[in-house]
Amino acid sequence: MSTATTLPEPTASKRPQLAHLTAVLDDLRAKGTFFRLRVLDDQQAPVCHYDGREVINLASNNYLGLCNHPKLIEAALEATRTLGVGSGAVRTIAGTMKIHMELEEKIAAFKGVEACVVFQSGFTANAGTVSSILGKEDFILSDELNHASIIDGARLSRAKIKVFRHKDVAHAEELLKEVQNEPGRKLIITDGVFSMDGDIGPIPALCDLADKYGAIMMVDDAHASGVLGRNGRGSVSHFGCTDRVDIQVGTLSKAIGALGGYVCGSRDLIDYLYHRARPFLFSTSHPPSVAATCMAAFDLLEAEPERIDRLWANAKYFQDQLRSAGFNIGGITTPATETPITPIIIGDGRATMDFSRALFDQGLMATGIAFPTVAEGKGRIRCIMTSEHTKPQIDKALEILTATAKKTGVGLA
Ligand SMILES: *Cc1c(COP(=O)(O)O)cnc(C)c1O
């Protein structure tokens, strides 16, 4: 029998090493923007259960309802049965399966480009690409509202970052002129659809700039994939700019319903990324089920374009009703929405989070978004319509929004 005395386990809260994190959380609590994660009890759907409560769900990126489409589920199950649950390695060592190559060929054909590479997520696609194609002599011209994964990729590249005002092409040109005679390469990068405001990037005008100054043109189409363009080919296709954009990024995690990100472009771009993009080299590839799911989703985009039509009809109806009820859905101090992303601008962070909680208590899941996801003072409830919401569900959501806004005195202009 041991005679050693057992020391009491030190509790995490008593160790001082991470006290600075606790201080940040205390500050969030004081500002009213601390949140707990809402937990989904069942499937991602227009009506589902979070934290045990039935809600109308306006918070997902499941634009086309593909997260639980029977054909996609069947494809995932079949791939799992025949190919297993994991790929076993990173792509460059032993983890490239035939199904990964098939998915990349399918996406390249869909987008009308030479080649495609799939990453583990849209985040790693952006960060891995931007960081690997540029170096410290180079320049990145980036819209101020571009996604965090672009910003992180830009920082990792060590290129000099020039941020232009949101969608301000003249400002982008001013910045380009300043560095025009520097030896480094220039990359112009924009979101196709901006994730927090739902407005569309000025792609043709930025392509003009890229052509004029010999800059590389890159578009992150995460929120446009499956939503904009013929059969959901994205914003670049929507504007007829496929031949003028060197690098197109898309996600498989939103409208496509599964998980992943992809980069489309020339064969050389893709071969280069095979050799240099760090998430590709150092992080394991998708399980075969994910690749199979995505292939089935692209088939569906071609076979059932009516889903995309329903999505846009629902979004238009919802936004028209919100506007006539007096909600500020952007366009005054923030950009106006042009896509199914529908921000209801509140402003103050605490008021935003309180409003979101009040909506939840009435049976509406609509997430409050505050600093640092959006700028301080630009808090909003972000609603995303899907093709699968029914009119009675949308009307009920509108009723809850209006009643809650009247009761709490926020949201209505
Ligand atoms: C969601 C999003 C990403 C990241 O995509 P994931 O596949 O979720 O990692 C990248 N860019 C933009 C603009 C996004 O909205």
Automatic annotation (TrEMBL):
Any Pfam family: Aminotran_1_2
GO biological process, one term: biotin biosynthetic process
Enzyme Commission number, as recorded: 2.3.1.47
PROSITE patterns tied to this protein: AA_TRANSFER_CLASS_2
Entry keyword annotation includes ATP-binding: no
Membrane-spanning segments: none
Modified residues (N6-(pyridoxal phosphate)lysine): K254
Keyword terms: Biotin biosynthesis, Ligase, Pyridoxal phosphate, Transferase
Pathway in which the depicted protein is active: Cofactor biosynthesis; biotin biosynthesis
Domain Aminotransferase class I/classII large: 54-400
Cited SUPFAM superfamilies: PLP-dependent transferases
Function: Catalyzes the decarboxylative condensation of pimeloyl-[acyl-carrier protein] and L-alanine to produce 8-amino-7-oxononanoate (AON), [acyl-carrier protein], and carbon dioxide.
Subunit comment: Homodimer.
Name of the protein described by the UniProt record: 8-amino-7-ketopelargonate synthase
